[in-house]
Write a structure and sequence with these properties.
By secondary structure, the protein is of the alpha/beta class. The chain contains 13 helices and 8 strands. The chain starts with a helix and ends with a helix.
Amino acid sequence: MIVPQSVANRLPDPHAAQLLGVKISGLDAEETVDFVQALVESGESHQVCTVHALGLLEADRDSDLKSIFNQASLVVCDGEGIRHVLQKRRATVYKFPGVELAESLCMIGAERGWRVFFYGGEPGVAERASEALAEKYPRLVVVGALDGFHGAEDVGARLAHIKSMGVDLLLVGMGIPLQEKVAFRAQQIGAARVCMGVGGTFDVISGRRRRAPRWVRGLRLEWLWRGLIDPRKFPKLVGLPVFLWKVSRDR
């Protein structure tokens, strides 16, 4: 990983703790944005991952996914379960939701002239999300948006198209593990300076799905809110006790 020395010297180790065999960043929100900015401007292609408890469980079952996480330039905590466990272990960790990280990077990108591409979600959602951010940050350079509803055989062609656009920041919203595997392929071919999975970020930014109210987030219950407003996600919540049991054995 190539990071300008001026940034590297003032940032702590981005892989501050390990959980279920995956290294998790110890940077706070401001440091994370600074670090990703340095990656974008390093001249190399990097992958940044955002992960929650169920993502770590998936990686525990999928060695390819775990390898992708551990090859990434940065793995950001995007889940209350991970934050809770690591803080109990007195590790330095900050929760930085993917939707907030993506918007923060688009704000910086608008100031610095980054070329941003939105890839994933249902038809029309990535486009609406890009339009919403371009309206909020008028100088944001959006070079394209594609949905994620296509066959696996089409991924290569879409990534080749993205690479041809000279992208600085590629946001991939397909959910774990697919978005990590697509972002990894994108990084391997140099499709963008930073390739980052952002989960359901496009749904929230486009207005298709409402994020938990601030008071719910303050109580650290956003995970429960998601299950209540989207019954399709509720069965996944049974994975949280499994996660806690797994990490209790992972010292």
